[in-house]
Structure formats: C-alpha cells, structure tokens
Specification:
Blueprint (H helix, E strand, L loop, with lengths): L1 H13 L4 E5 L7 H16 L3 E5 L3 H7 L2 E6 L2 E7 L5 H8 L18 E10 L4 E9 L3 E5 L6 H8 L7 E6 L2 E3 L4 H6 L2 E4 L3 H5 L6 H6 L3 H4 L7 H15 L15 H13 L5 E5 L7 H16 L3 E5 L3 H7 L2 E6 L2 E7 L5 H8 L5
Parallel strand pairs: 1-2, 7-12, 7-13, 10-11, 11-12
Antiparallel strand pairs: 3-4, 5-6, 5-8, 8-9, 13-14
C-alpha cells in the first residue's frame, strides 16, 4: 500500500500541475517516506506550485503549511496563518459540537468482565499490542481517526484477521478465534461498517437476513423451516421496530435506518454475549439514529457487552461508558465517561500524550 501511495503522488507531481491537492498523502507511509514527501513539497513550493494539503495529522500541517483552514460539518470554520494558531486552538475549532437529545444514555451498573484482550496483535490487520476489557451492560466506545485501526481491531476480535500474538478471554476463559464461525460459536456478533456490502444482503428478504447467522435455529435437520424463519424475523421486526409491511420484503426496499436494524437483527438472533457495532448510525436519518441509540441502551440494560466504533465524537460521548482511543493500530488511552471531552479524545486520536 505505501508503494501504491507513492505512485499516486508521483503521478500528480509528474503532470506538471500548478496546483497539487494531497488528501491524506501520508496515511500509509513510513516516517522516512514522509520525510521524502516533505522534501518534494518544499521543491514544488520553490518552483511556484501551490499545494493544498489535507490531513488529520496536525504535526504535519504545522510542518508544511503557511495557512490552515479548519472544516467542520462541511463548513469552513476559520482560515489562519500557522504562526497565529497553536495545536490546542486547532483542536477546539475542529470539534465544537454540542450533544443533542438523540443520545438516550442510561446509567447502568456494569457487571463482570465479558471480553478481555491482553496485548493482542495481528500483523495482517495492523493491530499492535491492544489491551482492553468490556463488561456486562457496558458500552465501550472505540474512537480514532480514519486509518487508526478501529475496524481492523473489530475484524481481529471477530476472526476475520485472527490475532497472531496476545490473548483473548471470554468470561475469563482464554479462547482462540481463528474465524468468524469460531467467534459466533463463542457468542460474539459483529455489525460491520459497510452496510450495503457486508451488513445486510439487500437482495434477500428480511426473514432470510435475520436467520443468516443462526441457521441452526430454523434448520434443525438441514432444511430451512420457512415458517420458523418467519416467526424469528417477526419477533425482531417488533423488537427493533423495523418499518416493513412484511418480513418477505427485500432488505434493499427499506430505508437506510431500517436496513441497519435488519443487520442488527441478524446478530441479535445469535444471542451474543458481545456485540461489536462499527459505525452503527452511519448514513441514517436523525430519527433512526435516535432509535438505534435507544436499542443500544436497551441491549446494555439487558446485560449485553457492546463495543461501539464511531467517527462521531458526540455519539461516542453520548453513548459510551468508557472510550478507548486508537492511534496507528494501538490503544493510545482509555477515558471514563465522566472525564471524556471532545478535545481529550481528539488529542489522543492525533497521537498526543494523555
């Protein structure tokens, strides 16, 4: 991947452009390659080329930029000379959103530790020495910038890219998770980030989607009992308030929020002990977002251990009991709900000291 990135940079520079836009150009580069890129940028500037450098890494912006514009929610917040602002002020401009009433968090006393990771690494996933715990009735938020390893950590826990060192414990028992099938048998569910590709099969019915991860419940003798499958799906349509005239409808005919509920139903049907939600409200309207948050609160109240990955700071602050912040494939720090602020999360996500 780093070599592909360098080829893309070379392509842009080789076009003899007068303006070059670099969008997260160092996302997959080593420190040595980053230093080489900065030398190229310096040469381009000396030749009169204008560079627009887009990055979450504030230390890089401070190194290469003359001026900085902060964008938030699609709007330009401010443009200032780099010598007029410090890192703390940039962070304040980058956050600055208030929590609304769409986060119906309830105070729940967490129980025993359900899932524990001890120094877990996966070379294939780019996850390094991660240690964390999730307790019964707890929502553990996972924060971090794009490329920080949040989704890769979920895939390691779920066995898509198994760990190659460290230890995973479920209710105190050390377990091996070499595949998603092993994770499901152990009581781990995973609602992935990419709903159209991995969350729900849009061409299949709501009933078929719901039973997909727990076929043994509706096919005890190897053949699917369609009546039993319908009963299972109708139970979750009621429980999750999925808006549909029939469980025979294709999942693709539903709104984004209801498709997400169908994806959630698939994993709730497995009776999981741990549920990993990757961007659970991405691309849904405010009403559906509030409903999904309410469902999460219900599930936590029933004793489910929830790991919630989110790019939205208000969602993390509004729904999490604790927030683990990732940077470059590892946990940079964990913050309790009472101590969590947007500035503290973003500072850790940018790789700064706690």
């Amino acid at each position: 991947m780093p070599e592909q990135q360098l080829v893309e940079i070379a392509k842009a520079i080789g076009a003899d452009a007068r303006i070059v836009i670099m969008d997260e150009p160092t996302a997959s580069l080593t420190e040595r390659e980053v230093a080489s890129l900065f030398q190229v940028i310096a040469r381009l500037r000396s030749e009169g080329v204008g560079v627009i450098y887009i990055s979450h890494r504030l230390e890089e912006v401070a190194t290469v930029a003359d001026r900085v514009t902060v964008l938030r929610d699609g709007e330009a917040i401010a443009t200032k000379r780099m010598d007029e602002v410090d890192r703390a002020e940039l962070i304040r401009m980058m956050v600055g959103r208030e929590l609304g009433s769409i986060f119906p968090k309830r105070e729940i006393t967490a129980g025993e530790t359900v899932l524990e990771l001890r120094d877990v690494s996966s070379q294939a996933a780019g996850v390094h020495h991660v240690s964390l715990t999730v307790r019964k009735g707890e929502i553990l938020g996972i924060a971090g910038l794009v490329g920080s390893g949040r989704t890769q950590l979920a895939e390691t826990i779920f066995g898509l890219t198994p760990s190659d060192s460290g230890e995973i414990l479920l209710r105190g028992e050390s377990i091996a998770i070499a595949s998603p099938a092993a994770a499901i048998r152990r009581g781990i569910g995973y609602v992935p980030e990419d709903r159209p590709r991995h969350g729900a099969i849009l061409e299949m019915s709501i009933a078929a989607n719901t039973s997909l991860a727990s076929l043994q419940k509706v096919a005890p003798r190897g053949l699917i009992d369609r009546a039993e499958e319908r009963v299972l799906a109708e139970r979750f349509v009621r429980q999750l308030r999925i808006k549909t005239p029939s469980v025979d409808m294709e999942a693709g005919s539903l709104s984004g929020g209801n498709q997400q509920k169908v994806a959630l139903a698939r994993w709730l049907a497995t009776d999981p002990a741990v549920l990993i939600l990757d961007e659970p409200t991405q691309g849904v309207d405010v009403g559906s977002k509030s409903e999904i948050h309410s469902l999460m609160a219900d599930l936590a109240e029933r004793g489910l251990a929830i790991v919630m990955i989110s790019s939205e700071l208000p969602e993390l602050l509004g729904m999490s009991d604790r927030i683990a912040v990732m940077h470059r494939g590892t946990i940079r720090g964990t913050i309790d709900r009472k101590d969590a602020t947007q500035q503290a999360i973003l500072s850790l996500a940018l790789g700064h000291a706690a």
